[in-house]
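# step 3/5: fold
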Amino acid sequence: MNEFIDHYARLGVSSRAENGEIEATYLKSIEVDPSHPLDEPTLKRLEDLKQSRDILMNPVTRYIYDIGHRNYHFIAAIRVIRSGLDDAVRGAEQIVANAKKD
């Protein structure tokens, strides 16, 4: 399963940020020291930042991303709840099994 990418966090903006703020933050984030060579990690970071900017600046891709973003967190919460319930059921089953032995 692919790892979820939080484009808002990657750029350091809120989910309510408007395009002007996204663009300004992006431009500030991609500033690099010209005296340092662009190594592989720096190029990857710049590519990741551009991807996030492109997704959030386009109203259609941003809308689709926002739906997925909400669903991702909802599904993650359901998994946590279900995991807790599964643990509780296993614990109850073990208590019942131990009680039957006595």
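# step 4/5: annotate
The chain has two domains: 1-57, 59-102.
# step 5/5: archive (pending)
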